[in-house]
Amino acid sequence: MAVQDPLAQEFVQFAVECGVLRFGEFKTKAGRMSPYFFNAGLFDDGAKLGRLAEFYAQRLLDSGIEFDMVFGPAYKGIPLGAALAVELARRGRNVPFAYNRKEAKDHGEGGTLVGAPLKGRVLVVDDVMSAGTAAKESIRIIQAAGATPHAVCLALDRQEMATEDGKDVAYSAVQYVRNKLGLQVCAIAKLSDLMQYLEKRSDTGTAAYHQQVQAYRARYGVDEG
Question: Which of 35, 97, 126, 140 has the most CB within a 10 Å radius?
Answer without folding.
Answer: 97
